[in-house]
Design a protein that fits this description.
The chain has helices at residues 40-46, 49-53, 89-94, 115-127, 140-152, 166-174, 186-200, 213-217, 219-227, 244-259, 278-285, 312-321, 331-345, 351-363, 387-391, 406-413, and strands spanning 4-9, 15-16, 34-38, 85-87, 99-104, 133-136, 156-161, 178-182, 203-204, 235-239, 267-273, 325-329, 374-379. The protein is an alpha/beta fold. The chain has a domain at 85-111 and 213-390: Rossmann fold (3-Layer(aba) Sandwich). The chain has a six-stranded mixed beta sheet, sandwiched between helices. α9 packs across α10, α10 crosses α12 and α13 (331-345) packs across α14 (351-363). The N and C termini lie far apart (68 Å). The mean pLDDT is 95. The structure holds pyridoxal-5'-phosphate (PLP) and zinc ion. Pyridoxal-5'-phosphate (PLP) binds at residues 112, 114, 140, 207, 239-245, 303-304, 350, 352-353, 380-381.
């Protein structure tokens, strides 16, 4: 048996047995997002910290007892998780910080953090005996689901806005998914996918609807704490669209506190694109997340373009309960951050992936972090996902066109 013991509604606190409800609280419909509850005493007995330290499974499945899957369920063969946590000393120095780490989730099999959630979706869909798995996505969740499904031969249907970057569409096509390019926004694709999964009985992986996706995403912070030898950092920067990742980080940290594996809750700093900043705006004005109304969005960071953040309640709680903050960054700041990050530590992030770092660049002068603090910046997706964004960079690097002659090299080096 898994150590997940129930589901609790974020809105009304109603508790359900695992098999009683599939996705959301029946009293609250699509808004009634559920939180998975665990039996921490039995997790401690199954997975003492000493055993984990000796584990050679360098994937998210090293934390299987902390995940909502049956212990005997087979897991997909693609290696998800255990991405590197790099000390970024040169960047730290340039920002007058002492301890800065970059967690690079561009290194996942389909090049974004979404693989962590899609791996859980594939296992749970198989446990449920579903024939088809479906998701709506701004692109990365779709690529992740497509790749993980391909690794086990699981048919799947993908709903994405027709405007997503080419590389993301290429990923969907090559994995053999049924791809529906929705002429509309991500929010439109989301609603359509909900209707279709209800009509056809497909397994629904949608973020901010399927309660198990946050559980997969929390593995990022389990790894961060383990990679820091179970000393939780002081704060973690993460970009926020729907809010599922930041909600997952908060959940993972609460798990670790409950198990006694860490001794404090880091501040969670959620970074939004200024052109898609529903949560930032609500936080700033003290508005309750349930009151947020959809806004029109415009940003180069397509992966965090969400007019109505689906996991807004979890995201707001993550920031408020951890004593963190929301920060908004402009597209220019994101582009600049992509370049500074890549040049300063060798990690190439897509715009949404670098937004977290842009948030740090803004937080330092505004006093949101102190120079002696231990800071982790989570990079959520690879820059190869969206090479067109790079062409918009202010400096475009140092390129010089030359004729194939040595004198031209000499002239160019002047
Ligand atoms: C999905 C995604 C995010 C944001 O995650 P949410 O759970 O929607 O807040 C950030 N960066 C990248 C690269 C993503 O794919
Ligand atoms: Zn409810």
């Amino acid at each position: 048996m898994s150590h997940a013991i129930g589901l609790k509604c974020l809105l009304c606190g109603a508790e359900y047995a695992l098999h009683e409800v599939e996705y959301v609280c029946p009293l609250h419909g699509d808004e009634g997002i559920l939180d998975v509850q665990y039996d921490y005493a039995s997790i401690s007995r199954t997975l003492p910290l000493e055993d984990l330290v000796g584990s050679r499974d360098y994937s998210i499945w090293r934390y299987k007892p902390l995940l909502p899957v049956e212990p005997e369920s087979p897991v997909p063969p693609l290696s998800v998780g255990w991405t590197p946590l790099y000390p970024a000393d040169r960047l730290a120095e340039s920002l007058n910080l002492k301890h800065l780490w970059i967690k690079d989730d561009g290194r996942q099999p389909t090049a974004s953090l979404k693989d962590r959630a899609s791996a859980i979706a594939v296992v749970r869909a198989r446990e449920a005996g579903s024939q088809i798995v479906a998701t709506a996505s701004t692109g990365n969740a779709a690529a992740a689901l497509a790749g993980l499904c391909a690794s086990v031969g699981q048919p799947n249907v993908i709903f994405v806005p027709a405007s997503i970057p080419e590389a993301k569409i290429a990923q969907l096509l090559v994995f053999g998914s049924t791809v529906l390019l929705v002429e509309g926004t991500y929010d439109d694709a989301f609603e359509l996918c909900l209707e279709a999964t209800r009509t056809y009985g497909w397994y629904n992986r949608n973020t901010g609807y399927n309660p198990y996706m946050t559980e997969g995403k929390k593995t990022a912070v389990l790894e961060i704490c383990e990679q820091l030898y179970w000393r939780a950092p002081d704060c973690i920067f993460v970009s926020v669209g729907d809010g599922c990742i930041i909600g997952g980080l908060h959940k993972g940290l609460k798990d670790l506190l409950a198990l006694g594996w860490i001794d404090h809750m880091p501040r969670l700093i959620g970074v939004q694109a200024a052109g898609s900043a529903a949560l930032y705006n609500a936080w700033k004005r003290g508005v309750d997340p349930s009151e947020i109304t959809p806004v029109e969005v415009h940003t180069i960071a397509d992966s965090i373009a969400a007019g109505l953040p689906r996991d807004r309640i979890k995201a707001m709680r993550a920031v408020r309960e951890s004593g963190g903050a929301f920060v908004a960054v402009t597209d220019d700041e994101i582009l600049q951050a992509m370049q500074t990050l890549a040049g300063g530590c060798g990690v190439f992030a897509e715009p949404a992936g670098a937004a977290s770092f842009a948030g740090l660049l803004k937080a330092v002068p505004s006093g949101l972090v102190e120079s002696g603090e231990q800071i982790v910046v989570l990079i959520t997706g690879s820059g190869l996902k969206d090479v067109r964004a790079v062409l918009k960079l202010p400096g475009k690097g140092k390129t010089v066109r030359i004729e194939p002659r040595l004198e031209a090299v000499a002239a160019a080096l002047q």
